[in-house]
Design goal:
The chain is α+β, with helices and mostly antiparallel strands and about 240 residues long. The protein has helices at about 95-115, 140-150, 165-170, 170-175; strands at about 5, 15-25, 30, 35, 50, 55-65, 70-75, 90-95, 120-125, 130-135, 160-165, 190-195, 200, 215-225, 230-235. The chain has two domains: about 5-95, Beta Barrel (Elongation Factor Tu (Ef-tu), domain 3), CATH 2.40.30.130; about 95-235, Threonyl-trna Synthetase, Chain A, domain 2 (Threonyl-tRNA Synthetase, Chain A, domain 2). The structure holds zinc ion. Zinc ion (ZN) binds near residues 180, 202 and 206.
Length: about 240
């Protein structure tokens, strides 16, 4: 299994790696360690580039976890030859896109702390996202936006600790608080805690401090069934970079 470097440090943009396996038919390769986050928990898989010593470049168009083995697969497009096993690569994620995912994803945690109601679904995009709540009457749009921005400005630090999936599934208070589904095929999951604001198990990537999310707006609240309300949010400034 490859070492998943994004688990301990979501800010790692690049790493060296050695190819472990590849599948020319399905157009993927796997490596001994990676910074690429695989699709899961409502967060898209990373894209980026793999560089080889002899200047060859492989554009990585998607990252997914193999359903059977749990291995992280880096998908390439439009290449005739994949890197062979043992090839040394330098992997780099598309950081601008990933950091937008981190900011939106972290905002969805705060959104789940703002709107009362069980979460039935969530999706992160680059710069926007949404959560479905099992609630008949959510608060007004402007009230949710205001509450969210107040939480963001509290400058809450993220503290994470590792839990087993079994431990989490045996704790109803944690299961009820999920703002995105637990990723499949993962047995060890982080308990993501934004100090004094929200705590929930999550396998995704998050910012280190809520201030990094920046100002957000609530774009719409839609009815998706009798008891289901979809709250969509977006970042006001998508160009902000972490200032440390
Ligand atoms: Zn999360």
């Amino acid at each position: 299994m490859s070492r998943e470097l994004f688990q301990n440090d979501a800010y790692l943009r690049a790493c060296d790696a050695v190819v472990v396996d590849s599948n020319p038919k399905e157009k993927w390769f796997s490596v001994d360690q990676t910074v690429f986050y695989p699709l899961g928990g409502g967060q898209p898989g990373d894209t980026g580039v793999a560089f080889h010593k002899n200047d060859a470049e492989f554009a990585i168009v998607d990252t997914r976890r193999a359903r059977d083995t749990g291995e992280i697969l880096h998908f390439v497009d439009e290449v005739t030859e994949l890197p062979e096993s043992g090839t040394e690569l330098h992997l780099e994620i598309n950081w601008e896109r990933r950091y937008l995912h981190m900011r939106v994803h972290s905002c969805l945690h705060l959104l789940s702390a703002t709107v009362p109601g069980k979460i039935t679904g969530a999706q992160v995009y680059a710069g926007r996202g949404r959560v479905d709540f099992d609630v008949r009457y959510p608060q007004e749009k402007h009230y949710i936006a205001e509450s969210l921005n107040v939480l963001i400005q509290k400058e809450a630090r993220r503290i994470s600790r590792v839990c087993t999936r079994a431990e989490i599934e045996a704790t109803p208070s944690l299961m009820n608080n999920l703002s995105v589904p637990l990723p499949e095929g993962v047995d060890v999951i982080k308990l993501v805690h934004f100090e004094n604001l929200d705590i929930q198990p999550c396998g995704g990537t998050h910012v280190a401090n809520t201030m990094e999310i920046g100002e957000v707006k609530v774009d719409k609240i839609e009815s998706k069934g009798k008891r289901n309300r979809r709250v969509s949010i977006s970042l006001v400034d998508t160009a902000v970079e972490p200032n440390y």
